[in-house]
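Troubleshooting log. The previous structure file for this entry was overwritten by mistake, so regenerating from the original sequence record. Sequence copied from the archived sheet and checked twice against the printout by T.R.
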Amino acid sequence: MNQDRGDGVSRRCLLGAIATIPAITTLDAESALAADTSAAPAPALAPAASPGSPAGYAYFSLEESAFVEAMMDTMCPADALTPSGTDCGLATFFDRQLAGGFGSGDRLYMAGPWRAGTPPQGYQHPLDPRSFFSAGIAAAQRACQASSGKSFQDLSPADRDSFLTAIAGGKVTSDDFALAEWFNELVAPLFEQACFADPIYGGNRDKVFWKMIGFPGLPAFHAEDVVQYRGKPFPGAADPKSIQDFS
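Regenerated output below.
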């Protein structure tokens, strides 16, 4: 979201803590992100379409893709650090994860009974993640239309930022849907993963977020250098390596 808002749930709020950690301490970033999202299911990451595959979304409808692209560009606005969220591939990451086994709940127990859970118990919904995500978009659009007379994607960037901040803070509600839970436990963790997962999964295009925090990427044995480079720039971090670089 807009980085200039003091009260917004901005990209800087989500990424700032990571960016201020010495680069070498983020060497196992994907594992750290998975551990930091205990309230949401950890995706079994589905690779994005290969460079030769047709462009387009595998799961999103036209209305959903318009909402998600606007949301990604609000949470990650183009600035001196990165391009817009859509240009960074964040919407593509969301689409591929929801289209795959994560979205269909392949690794979740989905037979009920459905009782209120506690945060350490993780995902506790009768809907699989893709259905929960789509239901959240529909509920958010209804709330946006009711409050502004416009679809979310038609709002100004500042108004989109305010709307998402209100959802995250529980100030925008729906009679039949938990919007704050949807945003905080599904959207926000997926956004963070989209930024820092290997680019093979669709997000973090051109390794832009790895370069931003000085993460050298693969191979995993960089962890052996934690002590030597703690608090120091890591050699080669300007040219991080992804899975595709070793395939």
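The radius of gyration is 18 Å. Archived copy saved in two places this time.
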